[in-house]
Amino acid sequence: MPPRSDAWRRQLIALRRHLDRWLFRVGPPETAPIVLGQRRIFVLPTPAGLAFATALLVMLIASINYNLSLGYALVFLLGGVSVASIVHAFRNLLHLSFTPGRAEPVFAGERASFHIVVANHRPARRPALRLTARGTVVPFEIGAGDSADLIVPAVTAGRGWMALGRVRIETTYPLGLIRAWSVLVPEQRCLVYPAPEPTPPPLPEGASRNLGRRTGSAGDDDFAGLRTHQPADSPRHVAWKTLARGGPMLTKQFSGMDGGEIHLDWSTLPAELGTEARLSRMTAWIVAAGQRGLAFSLALPDVRIATGRGSEHSANCLRRLALFGTDAADA
User: Fold this and answer.
1) Are residues 92 and 189 in the same domain?
2) Burial code of 52-62, b = ≥16 C-beta within 10 A, e = fewer?
3) Which of 115, 149, 252, 324 fits a 20 to 30 Å CA distance from 32?
4) Domain range spanning residue 264?
């Protein structure tokens, strides 16, 4: 049953993509900004709208049967209101502009946050809007000439690039009788790092000959003074109090145990570990080294990264782990 259900799921996804391309003219990711024109907005009655139409039909038949002039007036009045709601629902989406925002990297299993900026260039409020992506519904409204920064959360499963995919924008304004919607595919993705190993072994020993001795180099024990801030310095060592008082950006220096340079080498890991387990362990080591402000290098089968420290170095190494063995390794 599971293989058959997977095959059915793949067929349904392929059919949905084909219908999107044919009906909604949705193809590959679109470049920003994405503006909703007349041909991209579709209108259909909601279940409440179908019930309302049925009630109008019954009232019309009763008015014809009993020749009720007031019945005719009521039916045509309510029918005119429903037709006017079609125009309002359509105009509530017309010319909305969508621009993909940032999507910060996360670890596998965490929630990714996709930012989408929706702009309203008309001098009229856009109420009762809903944006749906990856099973999440985000209700919002936009003021006249204003914009909204929407956050779409999405659960991550595996490492690598995660695309936002198909996005649906819809509204049932003003009466809930008519549903206007459109489909778009923003060019937006989020980098997913491998999940860190929950209980990894200790970091590999540094290569320094002074391992375990007191030195005057950077450590994590005793405060030794301040120096000029470098881009590679860890944010946790910045003298924020000095900066808050209007002083220059300085970095705290500590004297402590010299851990030497840590070498994270793929080839030194146990042979019984699989690829994903190796990536998970090295991810945990990189996070631990970054939290302690240690310098480390990374050696993978396809790339070697020189020794460094700081958030940028850690992010570069985690990116290599996330894209290891994929076609997007150099993207």
Assistant:
1) yes
2) beeebeebbee
3) 324
4) 214-322
